[in-house]
């Protein structure tokens, strides 16, 4: 099979920089990471310097995703040789055990890390991830709540908890978690949008109004967020279609929905290929499929 | 890394600044020796200081790398949920990737499981597959 550098005509520095970009921005394109990383480690290990250890870690996790246990074990051995007795490497060994579904062995390993160092957050998070993997959502939620009582600022954990609540259909608590995230990241349009979607799912007139407002906020932060635009259109149409609203609110929301529809049309018009998409959107909008009258 | 021209410019600016400082110190000691302590710095030293400062600043700006927008939300405009919803500390491994990806001991189990056939037309740039 042709090597990555031949296929794409890239140098080893570009491969290393790509790996760094994927690492920094949390990309989970594991097959590509394994291809690029494996070649980098096999051919250019000597040129990487100290970067090599973090690349070993990155490639190992990607190998676990692709069920490449051979690669994972070899990366783990290199890391163990360089950093014996390191908690971070032990955690990676635990992750490998998790990938092999040896959950009791992994739990023992994480417990030994926590005995040595009770403040080690990584091991605690892996234990919670194991509960999630085994389908024990209520225990995972309980543990995550206890964890967050101690480590209130951990954004990843709040986001994880919101997802767990959404899977359990406990939208009120999920909204609370997303509110925490929005408080600490006021400029992130994606959290606003996700919060608005949760509120929209909860339903009820108040929640729909709130969701419309947060969709608008997401649009203010990023006017290219199409999903927020669609959400704004739908929440406005639902409010307008509800029988319990006053005439003024109805009129306002019809105006908002019309504005959103025109923005959507304009955005799609810019892309030439979407003529069929546009016409189907208009057809559905005119048939009232976006604003059924029996909601709320 | 920045091109060597800008680095050279910063170096020249810093040297000129050091030279101007040295001349000012020398001028001061000369003034003290000749007891003419009320004379101000000669204008060429002042001009050299200011010019060297401007040149150094200009060069540093070019070495400093990419500027980010002042607007805090600007760098998030290109982010999508594809990357935002990945939480590395909570990654699970019990997903379809275990079976879908090519694995040496499962190759006989799944006859046509080959990850990423060498198809240069399909993959033009080294970008994540779902972009």
TrEMBL record, chain A:
Membrane topology: Peripheral membrane protein
Residue ranges of every copy of the EMC2 TPR-like domain listed in the record: 90-199
Superkingdom to which the source organism belongs: Eukaryota
UniProt-listed Pfam families: TPR_EMC2
Keyword set, alphabetical order: Endoplasmic reticulum, Membrane, Repeat, TPR repeat
Gene Ontology cellular component annotations, sorted alphabetically: EMC complex
TPR repeat feature ranges: 155-188
Main location (coarse class): endoplasmic reticulum
SUPFAM superfamilies per the UniProt record, alphabetical: TPR-like
InterPro entries: EMC2-like (IPR039856), TPR-like_helical_dom_sf (IPR011990), TPR_EMC2 (IPR055217), TPR_rpt (IPR019734)
Subcellular location: Endoplasmic reticulum membrane
Record's function text: Part of the endoplasmic reticulum membrane protein complex (EMC) that enables the energy-independent insertion into endoplasmic reticulum membranes of newly synthesized membrane proteins.
Name this polypeptide is given: ER membrane protein complex subunit 2
Organism: Paramormyrops kingsleyae
UniProtKB/TrEMBL annotation, chain B:
Signal peptide interval: 1-20
InterPro entries linked: MMgT
Principal location: endoplasmic reticulum
Pfam family, one: MMgT
Entry GO CC: early endosome membrane; EMC complex; Golgi membrane; plasma membrane
Keywords associated with the record: Endoplasmic reticulum, Endosome, Golgi apparatus, Magnesium, Membrane, Signal, Transmembrane, Transmembrane helix, Transport
Subcellular location: Endoplasmic reticulum membrane; Golgi apparatus membrane; Early endosome membrane
Transmembrane domains' residue ranges: 41-61
Topology in the lipid bilayer: Multi-pass membrane protein
Any one Gene Ontology molecular-function term assigned to this protein's record: inorganic cation transmembrane transporter activity
Assembly behavior: Component of the ER membrane protein complex (EMC).
UniProt function note: Part of the endoplasmic reticulum membrane protein complex (EMC) that enables the energy-independent insertion into endoplasmic reticulum membranes of newly synthesized membrane proteins. May be involved in Mg(2+) transport.
Similarity field: Belongs to the membrane magnesium transporter (TC 1.A.67) family.
Protein name: Membrane magnesium transporter
